[in-house]
Amino acid sequence: MISELILSELSDCAVILEGYDDCIIGIGSIFPHTHSVLIYDVGKIINSLMEKDGMDDEEAHEFYAFNIAGAYMGDGTPILQSDKIVDGDIEMQPL
Fold first, then answer.
1. Could you give the CA distance from residue 95 to residue 88 in angstroms, rounded to a whole number?
2. Predicted pLDDT of residue 95
3. Are 40 and 25 in contact (CB under 8 A)?
4. Is the pTM of this model over 0.85?
5. 78/57 Cα distance (integer angstroms)
6. Which of 43, 47, 67, 81 is most open to solvent, judged by the fewest CB atoms within 10 Å of its CB?
7. Does residue 86 register a pLDDT over 80?
8. Cα–Cα distance for residue pair 83/95, rounded to 1 Å
């Protein structure tokens, strides 16, 4: 469950990815917008898909790429953060 403190800091337009509360790592904004949105950890999302939904690594990455990373949800679209970069591309493997 998202804490009341985090919820109080979010803009009204912020999108919450249902079922991924444990993947939230912060709050941020993207220029030129000034509203606050959630920041999710990509590795934690992939792990969640594998653990909670029983997907294998390939299925989890495909689901993530198409249904989460590839989805524009308006001005409140969350920021998806990954700290794995290989040869200029994001390597989306579980952390």
1. 18
2. 44
3. yes
4. no
5. 23
6. 67
7. no
8. 9
**Helix residue ranges, H only, the chain:** 4-9, 42-53, 57-63
Whole-angstrom Cα distance, residue 55 to residue 22? 18
For 74: left if phi > 0, alpha if psi spans -120 to 50, otherwise beta; the answer is: left
Residue 67 to residue 25: CA distance in whole angstroms: 20
- Whether cis (ω within 30° of 0) applies to the bond prior to 32 is yes
H-helix or E-strand spanning residue 38:
strand 37-41
Does pLDDT of 81 surpass 70? Answer: yes
Decide which of 91 and 1 is more confident.
Answer: 1
Question: N- to C-terminal Cα distance for the chain?
Answer: 22
The number of helix segments (H) and strand segments (E) in the chain equals: 3, 5
